[in-house]
Amino acid sequence: MITFIELLVNGISIGAVYALIALGFVVIFKATEVVNFAHASLLLVGGFIIAKTHESVGFWPALLLGLAGAAVLGALIEFLVIRRANVVNHSVLAIVTIGVDIVLTTELTRQIGTEVLALGDPWGSQVLHLGAVNIPLARIAALLAASAVIAAFLLAFKYTNWGVAMRATAEDAETAALMGVRRGRVSMGAWAVAGALAALAALFMCIFPTPGLDRTVTATAMKAFPAAILGGLDSTTGALAGGLIIGVTESLVSGYQGELVFLGRGLGDVAPFLVMIIVLLIRPAGLFGTRELARV
Amino acid sequence: MNVHDPGPPGDSGLTVRDLAVSYGPVTALRGISLEVPRGSVVTVLGGNGAGKSTLLRAISGTLRFHRGGITAGEIGFGRARLSGAATSAVVAHGVVQVPEGRKIFARMTVEENLRAGALGARDRRSASESRERVLTLFPVLAERARQRAGLLSGGEQQMLAIGRALMARPKLLLLDEPTLGLAPMMAARIADTVREINAQGTTVLLVEQNAALALSLASHAYVLEVGEVVLSGPAAELAESDEVRRRYLGIGDDRDEAPLAGAAPARPALSRWSA
Predict the structure, then answer these.
(1) pTM attached to this predicted model
(2) ipTM of the assembly?
């Protein structure tokens, strides 16, 4: 039972981090109808900036720099690549983002090399003891921070002019333009927000129990992709639900791997994709999605 | 009543000069000119594919959403040049369009739709003032403020679409077939509303297939066919003309189907672009 609670809390915590990444996917998809495969590299850039600056400026300023850096990079990708590309089919833009991802990831992994970079977070490897249940402080911080940011994001999405403009554009870009909404601004804002969310996710993916930022973090980040897909690529609620489902599944399956050994090792890494496939077989648009994606 | 009559000169309204528009290789407007003087209601009549919606797209700057563009001519509003301007700039100049088919944001609430309408307003402070004006004009929108707009009836959706456009405090309101698909009684209510909006000082350019209704509202009318202005003149005069009566009002002898003014060639199917 204690193991179960520990695994569950860990799962929810990592799920909240996946939800941050999935939310970025969803925001970009809603604003520009582009499936952004460069998301993992935004995340890597955010984490890399935090890792490289925290020693000289301290952790919190470094975190701000990381968030800002990833946001600027997101906005730049939108401005320099997505906006210039004059294509009819948005699937082509998805392929363009794969190219962007390869360029960025290759350069960053070259910079990182074989090192494992610490992010200088204040939580370290401390563990919170609640009776017999032991939970790392870093996981609690991840859960709280991700929940707060997601809540703030959803409130902004619902109540601010930015949110109204964003949802109007997502629903009908031409009519939104007739209201005077500047599409370029909306989509650039979406990419920037997605970048900042990814950088925050990078922080919580690279602290305890993970030893630090290394070049495999992009692979881990791609686990948020099934989260976004199974929730429905155009649904913010779906991103949350998807993130939590993937996080909890992964945590439980890895935790009980001993009992599931007849299925082979490393099932925890496969489970998110299995869940995604099962959900998509039943609901092709995802749990909360309204648009089916064909062959992306 | 002459062909290509530019109408009375007016420096403060909307002026369209020799406007030509094409979608790729397909020409949709072939050099049309029209004027909408300040404070007036002007209507543009024509069947499917005549280029009515294309005209409004050209004015609002949304041709690029349909892979089209202005190839010649100019659109001016007051001292501002609208041809080539971004849609947000057109809205900022006070020219706001109510699109055909209403196009309300179905997944957002009525209140949020009105809010979206104020996004491009020149003066954000006046949003609550505009909201009051809209809700006085359409009390039903106040009752339904928290409902999802997709759940409104067709007539209510049209009211919401017009109300949403009024949130931007337009000087010129462009209406694209506002009575399309509405019951006659609801169409008459929309017509009354258009009169009321005009009486409050907003200039109206009304694009319609319902010629009887449009001619009763407008002071001046243009008839488009296959991308050209084939008739224009005071609305009352056009309503009396034989060709308009026969062709658009369904009155009189319909054995004679000769093209208007002898100008229009056999009509190609253009319905795909302006339906």
Answers:
(1) 0.83
(2) 0.82
